[in-house]
């Protein structure tokens, strides 16, 4: 069954194509008819002392209910922070208090051989938030040869058993040169992607939306589009879009420009799964976020996920790869403005006053 959503309109944005996915409406996550979901990655440890997430080059790292196309529970009366006592949710709840609303999407990173769902995953699935499960990749040739069939089947069964809609973002940033030794080539990646989907289909896993996610930068220097498995294999097209540590200052519109041009040729909803404003931008962080809000109010963009973490920084002095807004009053305020803009609150979740 194919779900579709008519693209909405926003100030300054052109018309988007009719959006279709292979996801089953009412079972797997499908895009909102208007606007975009707002989510975040918030490290599961005490904020400011988080462990590293698996890198795009790593193959290792760190529920229940009836199936539904929307997360369980209702939006009405849900206040930010109410799930702070559940496993892994305290940092998420703290971030939600800063944002003045509950998140639509909570991201979780899992290694290739890591079991899931984790404690955080289960907490998210038991709430009315969507889980964005970012699953690391492995050697594509070994996947195609069948070496990991049993592992893939076990993960498929685990996701099916949750009975909840899950975004699955497998082997993100596959276009990076740093992962060429395991990705090998676009053809090898596509063959591995199709084998995963084939096994999930055999296990009758209907509650997954497949998110294909290279880097936004890969549409410039390299040919990220060559890794695209095809419209019949992908539910959401995605990009990771940090400004880049080699820039003193760069608007999100510039980071996303080439990716968005490519995406216009696809009848798919867009997710920006990792974006953040570097601490090196100082007093201009709020300005960057307000400009990003306008860029993301695009009728084809249906989900945005903030990377609220400093874990990619090489050390405490590396501000170009540090994206957490915690403690930065102006940045928190600007990101809160984005989060509480009606466009990024399509489920009309309660918004608290103050900040």
Automatic annotation (TrEMBL):
This is GH26 domain-containing protein. Residues 48-81 have a biased composition (Low complexity). Belongs to the glycosyl hydrolase 26 family. Transmembrane segments: none annotated. Residues 44-335 form the GH26 domain. InterPro entries: GH, GH26_dom, Glyco_hydro_26. SUPFAM superfamilies: (Trans)glycosidases (SSF51445). Gene3D superfamilies: Glycosidases. Residues 47-89 are annotated as: Disordered. Keywords: Glycosidase, Hydrolase.
């Amino acid at each position: 069954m194919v779900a579709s959503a008519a693209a909405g309109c926003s100030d300054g944005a052109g018309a988007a194509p009719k959006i279709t996915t292979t996801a089953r409406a009412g079972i797997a996550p499908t895009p909102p008819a208007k606007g975009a979901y707002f989510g975040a990655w918030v490290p599961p440890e005490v904020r400011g002392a988080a462990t590293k997430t698996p890198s795009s080059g790593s193959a290792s790292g760190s529920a229940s209910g009836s199936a539904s196309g929307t997360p369980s529970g209702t939006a009405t009366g849900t206040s930010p922070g109410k799930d702070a006592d559940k496993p892994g949710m305290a940092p998420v709840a703290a971030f939600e208090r800063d944002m003045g609303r509950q998140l639509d999407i909570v991201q979780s990173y899992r290694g290739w051989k890591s079991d899931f769902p984790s404690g955080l995953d289960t907490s998210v699935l038991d709430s009315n938030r969507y889980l964005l499960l970012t699953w690391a990749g492995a050697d594509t040739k070994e996947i195609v040869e069948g070496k990991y069939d049993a592992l893939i089947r076990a993960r498929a069964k685990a996701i099916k058993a949750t009975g909840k809609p899950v975004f699955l973002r497998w082997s993100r940033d596959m276009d990076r040169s740093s992962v060429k030794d395991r990705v090998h080539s676009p053809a090898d990646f596509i063959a591995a992607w199709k084998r995963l989907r084939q096994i999930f289909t055999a296990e009758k896993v209907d509650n997954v939306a497949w998110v294909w996610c290279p880097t936004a930068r890969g549409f410039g220097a390299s040919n990220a589009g060559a890794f695209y498995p095809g419209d019949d294999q992908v539910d959401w097209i995605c990009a990771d879009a940090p400004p880049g540590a080699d820039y003193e200052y760069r608007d999100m519109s510039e980071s996303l420009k080439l990716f968005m041009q490519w995406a216009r040729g696809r009848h798919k909803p867009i997710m920006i799964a990792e974006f953040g404003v570097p601490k090196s931008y100082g007093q201009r962080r709020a300005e960057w976020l307000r400009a990003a809000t306008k860029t993301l109010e695009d009728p084809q963009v249906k989900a945005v996920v903030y990377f609220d973490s400093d874990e990619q920084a090489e050390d405490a002095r590396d501000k170009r790869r540090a994206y957490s807004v915690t403690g930065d009053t102006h940045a928190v305020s600007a990101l809160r403005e984005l989060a509480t803009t009606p466009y990024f609150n399509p489920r009309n979740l309660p918004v608290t006053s103050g900040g």
